[in-house]
Amino acid sequence: GRLEAVTQQMGYHPQYLDSFLKTQHYLMHMDGPLPFDCRHYIAIMAAARHQCRYLVNLHVLQFLRAGGDPQWLRGLDFIPPKLRNLNEINKILAHRPWLITKEHIEKLLKISEWSWSLAELVHAVVLLAHCHALASFVFGCGCEQDEGPGVRGLLKPSSPGNQCFCEATASNGCSQDLLRINRKRSLDSCMELDSLRERMQRIHMETEGREETRLLQQDREEGEGQGAELSIADPSVGLFSLADTDGEVTGATNLACYMQDPDFGYQDFARRDEDQTQVFRVQDYSWEDHGFSLVNRLYSDIGHLLDEKFRMVDGLQSSAIAKRQGCEPSVFKRGIWNYIHCMFGIRYDDYDYAEVNQLLERILKVYIKTVTCYPEKTNSEMFDRFWKQFKHSEKVHVNLLILEARMQAELLYALQAITQYMI
């Protein structure tokens, strides 16, 4: 039930990590409209859309601990119709959130005995958006590669950790221990990536032996492993074949059972010269003026936690990044945020989108789009290759911006549809 790789990556920014842990804990383990087993099953459905074994494995175990029916882990055909009806909105939110309409909301709220309440649906929507965005972070920082048998992840944690993910809150000792550990680790972010890689290799030698390290270096030089080993440099290799061999129930050996219409994926939003009626204009519906109040009214206090997380990622220091890009930190972060929202059809009338091409080099834009729109195609080689001159903590910062911008984009579309239904 731990997210050690995720918390260790986020630990480069300990203030954000604390905010993230509070939100995650509230969503999964505090009072709310949805039963605890259903929360974890919804998380499984969300993570499966991006073939994210890391999150599926975590929530399968949490589902069973919460008293969930093991039969449900056989797939969507074995779950109650009420949960199965959530599949359509899960699919759309994950890949093309601009397609969500009030009709989708109405269908879920008016299905006789299997109907959802507004509060339950808001809780489910926040869970879906949270897990979709977290899957982007998992793939973007290479955490997924650490999970698969036969796959040697390039981003092994730089320090041993046993941080408790599920029970951490701002007020308990675990979270405070996390902060103390990560404040120390945040000093490591001052190293350049090459120096960090050397330190990770030394730890790797101590834990897995010198021969493994030699093979890791050899694979990196050759670019792609030979023989029967799975190359992490090949994003086309499916994750379904990575079956567990120890007999432990994970439910991740065939992620396809947790989703329908697996071929449904991201498509580029309508071009500027096409019909503009679909464009989502933030001045008409924004998080600050509309989404926050709605979600907080229907799911008490979650709006405050989400808002704190959005503000926290915006407030992270990125002076080094901005300096190297020749601009102010706020300008650079806004460029990344608005570029991500633009890919989902969300526009800000007060922003000059020509700045995006000036601020973001092509390799960075390719990385951001891949992690945002189809994270399952990301591998840790991509993380290593973009911005070679930048610090590890700065790359993690970019992935945090991707996580939060993507989550807010999904929430804006879903909450707008709920608002339209209520009106």
From TrEMBL:
InterPro entries from the UniProt entry: AhpD-like, Sestrin
Region feature Disordered, mapped onto this chain: 207-229
UniProt keyword annotation of DNA-binding present: no
Single GO BP term: regulation of response to reactive oxygen species
GO MF terms held by the record: L-leucine binding; oxidoreductase activity, acting on peroxide as acceptor
Top-level taxon of origin: Eukaryota
UniProt cross-references to Pfam families, sorted A to Z: PA26
Localization per Swiss-Prot or TrEMBL: Cytoplasm
Biased composition (Basic and acidic residues): 207-220
Record's catalysed reaction(s): a hydroperoxide + L-cysteinyl-[protein] = S-hydroxy-L-cysteinyl-[protein] + an alcohol
Keywords: Cytoplasm, Oxidoreductase
One term under GO cellular component: nucleus
Major localisation: cytoplasm
Family: Belongs to the sestrin family.
Name by which UniProt lists this protein: SESN3 protein
Organism for this UniProt entry: Crotophaga sulcirostris
Lineage, uppermost ranks: Eukaryota, Metazoa, Chordata, Craniata, Vertebrata
